[in-house]
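A note on notation is needed here, since sequence and fold are reported together in a single record. The reader may check this reading against the record printed directly beneath this paragraph.
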Amino acid sequence: MDKYIKTPITNEITADLSCGDYVYLSGSVYVARDAAHKRMMEALERGEELPIEIKDATIYYMGPSPAREGRPIGSAGPTTASRMDAYAPVLLDMGCKAMIGKGKRNRQVVDAMVRNGAVYFAAVGGAGALLSKCIVKSETVCYGDLGAEAILKIEVKDFPAVVVIDRNGNNLYEQVKEN
């Protein structure tokens, strides 16, 4: 089923999403990869606040390429989500409600999603140029010294994704494997 949803992602929104749903996201999304996640965990270990508002946030695991003239961002395809699995449960427990990436997640991440009513969306790998057309604004919000791994805040309009794991732990990858 196709669903058009706006960020921030709330419990009410995740309650209405099921594994296999096609979604079109609009609103603000944070972009963060390995190095940014590591730096956020180090900040938390020092007792510092996170540099972004994590409650009800959506984090897109993506490494953007430089923007072409007249565009807010270059190619914007998903990166492998499992690289963030060591960090995701902490962010989910802090209120993150959605993640976008590609590939499987480990049991600890799925358990944290169920515990916190969060969802995992998959974007189509290899379609970064097409996905970038759904990004209408991009700005670096912190860790600019990390270059392509800095945390960005992007504004998306009708960004296509699939609910791969819903808030109940139903997992599209596992369902497809069983059939």
Remarks:
- The beta strands are 2-6, 22-31, 58-60, 98-101, 119-122, 135-142, 151-165.
- The chain is about 25% helix and 25% strand.
- Residues 72 and 137 are 5 Å apart (CA to CA).
- The chain has a mean pLDDT of 94.
